[in-house]
Please model this.
Amino acid sequence: MESEKPGTGLLTGLSKHCNKAGCMALLGLLGCILLLAGCTGRKREMRGVEAEGEIQQEASGFVGSHGDSTGAANKKIHVWAVYWDNKEILKKMEALKEDVEGVSYFAVYFDSGKKMFLPEGVMDMKAAIEESSKERKTNSYLTFVNDLLKEGGGSSLKDRELLYHLLSSKESREEHIKEILKMTEQGGFDGIEIDYEAIKTDMELWKLFTSFVNELYGKVSEKGLKLRVVLEPGAPVEKLGFIKGPEYVFMCYNLYGYNTEPGPKADKDFLISMVEKGKFVPGETCFAVANGGFDFIKDSGEAEQISTEEAWKRQKQAGEKAVRRDEKSGCKVYSYWDNKGQEHEVWYADDETLTFWYDILEGSGAKQISLWRLGG
Model:
């Protein structure tokens, strides 16, 4: 997923788990995230995210005069919903109606003691969505991410050492699985989504992660639950031994972003390559795209992740005639100058872009599609 700025629900969720020092850690986390917000999106690695870590999941959409930022148009999609954006998410769900077949609720984090906690806002959001969609069944998944509060303040996002702590032995994996199942069942979710990122080229950790996924699926099946496993574009799936059963979700975004030249989150060749990559895992696969985009400062090389709505606002500075649509990616592109005399180049996805991406994925053989994220 891509990086996003959590709201006050994270503070509420932690209140039951932290003493004074823990609260200071939380404030450090929020400060860190607010600082990163100018260059976030879900993190990812989501959600955008440099692999070393900013809190997951990137792009954001919105409901307004410019469309619903899903490009769904009679396509069945799975979506992510974040707990700090309930109002916009409910609007989006109402606009999509029958198009949403599943919702992943973002997310379970880890406190400074490496214990999982669920912000209260997640359950509030789940209750609101289910109340507004009583007439249709939508599968619900609880998302688990490897974002960690640090002792004494601050945070470690997409933390690899946390994964070693959780997955290094069969005993530790069994305990982790037990806690995951307990939290999922208590929340009344239909399934589990594992979104552990920034493993990169660490093959030892990949092997531990693969064992964890395979063992988790065995327990999930016994409980009658579903399992989704989110995989970053660089995951070496051809070298891993995942079993058939879970749904494997490939992140098809962040082709360009932080630390790159200006460009789109995805283009045709990249999307086709991700579908090909999906052939290396057994069973069901799903391919996730992200709305929103990036605002690149051309001279400095800095990049800021922005929502579709924000891209529309900044587009006014460029003027409609300055906006073009990139042929390979379907993204809208424009340049503008800020009040500091810096030239910016913005690439973002609108409804037409998302429809273009969906068609490429489906034309390449994709059966299931996901969108990061609702709201914005």
